[in-house]
Specification:
mainly beta; 3 helices; about 60% strand; globular
Length: about 240
């Protein structure tokens, strides 16, 4: 369950049109109740004409003595017709279950070339396909464009899965920048629920992420943010 949370966390007033958030580095603290479990970081940076979105997660504190997990996901992304789409994706996990995944998204051929620990898998690429990491960036863009219900096609190791995401309400959340209004966004699977509190004044970056699985609840809280400033309050 902890590994699954780290993967999810390695988790961002409508605008007139879709736009990207500015480059940023966001740091989160992962906990279960009062127990600190780890840290996570999200980074968006520009690279020439493209974008790189990086998610890093690792166990910390007392838990790191029992379970060492270090996960880095890197997405090379392009901006195309008002949406982000993946070009290259790499996941490196070091811990009890090591994993190395590289995926290339060939939009001309409509194929994903997925290499998992050296074994190659090829499968069809739908027109709305996203990788496992940058769908979080797509969520920020879509919320800023006014969407409140999304259904993403996200590439797994060997095929695509649908990620239905819905807005379930609004809530004020205490943050290091004061109390911020958020949209509460949720994705439900059979026995797993992930909820994100996305702040419009931070380009819909999640300031809190909750994950429930098998009766356990984990939370990630935004602790620091570089490169992004609060947008003016709108009335």
């Amino acid at each position: 369950m902890i590994r699954r949370l780290l993967v999810i966390l390695c988790l961002w007033g409508p605008l007139a049109h879709a736009q990207l958030p500015p480059p940023f580095v966001a740091e989160y603290r992962i906990s279960m109740g009062l127990l600190s479990l780890g840290k996570a970081e999200r980074e968006l940076r520009r690279d020439g004409d493209g974008l790189i979105y990086i998610s890093r997660s690792r166990t910390a504190g007392m838990l790191s003595w029992l379970v060492k997990e270090d996960l880095t996901e890197t997405s090379r992304v392009e901006w195309m017709n008002g949406r982000v789409r993946p070009l290259l994706y790499h996941r490196k996990r070091i811990g009890r279950k090591n994993q190395d995944i590289e995926q290339r998204f060939d939009w001309q051929q409509g194929k994903v070339y997925s290499r998992i620990n050296g074994e190659l898998h090829v499968f069809d690429l739908p027109s709305d396909g996203l990788d496992q990491n940058m769908y979080q960036l797509s969520l920020m863009v879509d919320l800023a464009a006014g969407k409140r219900s999304m259904d993403y096609a996200v590439a797994g190791n060997e095929k695509f899965r649908r990620y239905p995401i819905r807005m379930i309400g609004r809530e004020s959340v205490d943050t290091p920048w004061g109390r911020l209004e958020t949209l509460v966004i949720q994705r439900k699977e059979k026995k797993v629920t992930t909820t994100m509190w996305c702040a419009p004044r931070l380009y819909y970056l999640p300031v809190r992420i909750g994950h429930e699985e098998k009766g356990n609840r984990f939370t990630a809280e935004l602790q620091s943010l570089r490169g992004m400033q609060l947008l003016p309050r709108t009335e």
